[in-house]
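Dear colleagues,

As part of the handover before I leave the project, I'm documenting each prediction I ran so the next person doesn't have to rerun anything. This entry is a single chain, and its sequence is reproduced below.
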Amino acid sequence: MAADSGAVSVPPITEDQRFRLLVESIVDYAIFMLDVNGTVSNWNPGASRIKGYTAQEIVGRHFSTFYTPEDREAGLPARALTTALREGRFEDEGWRIRKDGTRFWATVVIDPVRDDDGRHIGFAKITRDVSEKRVAEEALARSERQFRLLVSGVVDYALYMLDPNGIVTNWNAGAEHIKGYAASEIVGQHFSRFYTDPDRAAGIPTHALETARSRGRYEAEGWRVRKDGSLFWASVVIDAIRDDGGILVGFAKITRDITERRNAQLELQRAHERLAQAQKMEAMGQLTGGVAHDFNNLLMVVSGQAQLLRKRVAEDARALRALDAIEAASRRGQDLTRHLLSFARRQRLQPMPISLADRLEGLRELLGTSLGSNVALQLALPDEVWPIEADPSELELALLNLAVNARDAMPAGGTLSVSARNCTLKAGDIDPDLEGDFVALSVRDTGVGIPPDILARVFEPFFTTKDVDKGTGLGLSQVYGFVQQSGGRVTVESQLGEGATITLYLPRSTGAPRNTLDEAPAEAPGARKSWWSRTIRRSPRWWRACSSSSATARAWSTAPRRRWTRSPPATSRT
């Protein structure tokens, strides 16, 4: 059959020719043969491109020409041939030299070549220039090394990895600094050991990983546990780590100890709250003082006119009973205004050095009389307690207010503890403006406690949680005003079901205490002797009856050789 007119005739080639054409067409690999001594016997275009030699320039020369001087001196070319002949293959990476003297990073494979009878006739050598790959690998290695140094050098942050199950896989110096564990102690452990027992019981570690897995990130703040068991407030970030295929390979966890920052924020918040409370109490005091002063003037007119009318209706029993009711209401109003003036710090005080230890027995009888049989009284006023500078009558009135208040908080009975201790305050311990030597006089009961939501309002006048006929809400207001006017402060601590503790910080006196058990302080010069400054002697039984009622008692019992000069408190429990 005749051949097609457009067909091209291709002469047949042998297998050797086909193989030679294949080798000579490869330009990315240097493929050439060595004889048994390492002399180059042929050369492909890839070898010319990579190494820079033409076949005429290199055929017949030893292949060690491509090695660096230090490698030749170390005998690497001969060792490569020996290894290939002994093990059937030699693989290596290293620097090689081009014709122009430049270096390139090469991967080398040398295979021994044998004839059909198995005799060794030379070596086949394949070299590839992987300089760009090496540069990339070195850049990556350098970046990883720098990152590793960066991470390991950070001491203010705990930076470490978790596997998908939450097992710690590495550990930096910051983690050791913050949490106290060395890497050998914690790698391989579950990260939940840093959480508190309640958090573990609530499943927070598991929730953290699930959130990071589903959302890619988890952030939180909370208490964490160091190796020594101490707690610190931590800011935590957990990021999910995924490979190029989106498969989760672990988590990156960053923890920072922000305990000091949190404490500073809380202290700033407390300072703002104290300032707001002080401003509110100051405004209430100004308003209360003005109203109380004007109201007291009106009551004085009512009382004075009632006394004038009494002389005119001396023979009218019905009118006298009406006047008795008017005067009783007037005295009641004067008692309330006195408490309001005390809260507003407008009450006239007569401070003097007082030794609490010297007044121990008098205070025991005074307070015990108002408590009743189901409340145990404990007094701890040691001799080493410093003398204080205060008005003794107002101090006793404040303690009575606190005692009656505590008694009402213990309807089923309990214990009232009165204790004193010396303390030196720095600015900010109790109040930013309060510092120096003080005596902390604490009154603690075992009653029902004060709810947190009303704790900040207990000293406000007329604020009470009692029924309408159970108190006026002025008892603690008198305590607040007396302590503030004395140059001290008063604090309250309470938890529901665990009672309350009210502490009076009263300034230390540098003078010698006076024994005032048998005498009452004189009225200030020019002061009007109001009804409550007159001594009214009653029996203890009468005082107990008055202090247990809702009405304000107007006098209290007199111990042997002792004269009280103030009326007892309005019985209010906040």
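The radius of gyration is 48 Å. The first strand starts at residue 30 and ends at 34.

All the best with the project,
I.
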